[in-house]
Amino acid sequence: MRVGMNPQKQANTIDLQSNHRVVIVVYIPEMSGYYANVFDVMKLCLESVSVTKNVSCEITVVNNGSCIETTDYLNKIYSEDKINCLIHHRQNIGKMDALIGAARGAREEFVTLSDVDVLFVEGWQQAVEKIFNSIPDVGLVSPISSRTEPTYASFSTWSKIFLQKVKFKYEAIPENFESYNKFLESTNWDKETDPNIAWPVIEKNGTKAIVGSNHQVVTIKRSLLFEFVPTLPSLTLVGNNSEYNYIDLPVDLANKMRLSTFNNFAFHMGNKVENWMVEIQNKNLLNNSEKSEVNKSVFKTNQREINNTNLFFYKLKKRIVKPIFLSFYKK
């Protein structure tokens, strides 16, 4: 028997105080072998995103069947309010299923999908959001500037260039030389030798971006997760075109542009922390200490997601069918 009225039913709608969410999947099954130093990489990743995001961004961590030491640490930082949402899976359900499942639960406009070995740099969130807000028809932006991916899952991007929806030219960006070589080195690719090598650059409304991106860390619009990402589970641990099918291809299908920031705002770390990574985090901490706190804004989501035409016919059919049903099935 229910006693009284649930007070939640009398509450007003929820005020959404964030418009950006970072989703990071963690899989550390053991503290040995390949994973011997990944725990430290994970800690640096989470610490870097925590100090570089602004107050309108929240963090979701998905524990995808990690060992007890990792699970205990994630519970600890959640209890300390260092992350906003923590999801536990007892077994590894696969990277894409863990990532997309959590991302679809986000309510924010922007959703950043990240590997656990990404080092975030101060200013990444503002740089990514500026591209979305300044350039029309952007579907995905990575804070890792990528020079060699201009044709990967970028048909829709090149079509907009061809139709002159955006300005395009090849441009030298010497300030990206060192950071891009760090990325190439982290993936065991050959480093570049010419700091003045040309990058594929687009420009619109005074904002520049690089054509193409990798998928270690990307930001997408939330709507993309429901309109073009497959609804069936991937059932893949990692790889096997799962990133392409669930992140890369949907951007092209949506006829949106795939870009990365003009300058580099994140690094791929691999499975071991190096001194230069710690130095970058120390700079993040210094910049964070100089930030002034601002009040959170209230963000209004689009409440017109229900198809009004379908809703009209649903109500019409309901008015017709209900009396017919009651006439046939009387009490």
How do the helices and strands line up, and which of them pair or pack?
Layout (H helix, E strand, L loop, with lengths): L19 E7 L11 H15 L4 E8 L3 H12 L5 E5 L5 H9 L6 E5 L3 E3 L3 H11 L3 E5 L12 H8 L4 E6 L4 H10 L11 E7 L2 E5 L5 E5 L2 H4 L14 H12 L3 E5 L4 E3 L6 H15 L18 H21 L3
Parallel strand pairs: 1-2, 1-4, 2-3, 6-11
Antiparallel strand pairs: 4-10, 5-12, 6-10, 7-8, 8-9, 9-11
Helix pairs in contact: 1-9
Task: Explain this structure.
- The chain has helices at 38-52, 68-79, 95-103, 124-134, 155-162, 177-186, 224-227, 242-253, 275-289, 308-328; strands spanning 20-26, 57-64, 85-89, 110-114, 118-120, 138-142, 167-172, 198-204, 207-211, 217-221, 257-261, 266-268.
- Strand 2 (57-64), helix 2 and strand 3 form a beta-alpha-beta unit.
- Helix 1 runs parallel beside helix 9 (275-289).
- The chain starts with 19 loop residues before the first strand and ends with a helix.
- The chain is α/β, with parallel strands linked by helices.
- It has 10 helices and 12 strands.
- It is globular.
- The longest helix is centred in the last third of the chain and has 21 residues, at 308-328.
- It has a single domain (16-289), classed as Spore Coat Polysaccharide Biosynthesis Protein SpsA, Chain A (Alpha-Beta Complex), CATH 3.90.550.10.
- The strands form 2 sheets. Strands 3-2-1-4-10-6-11-9-8-7 form a 10-stranded mixed β-sheet, with helices on both faces. Strands 5-12 form a two-stranded antiparallel sheet.
- 35% of the residues lie in helices and 19% in strands.
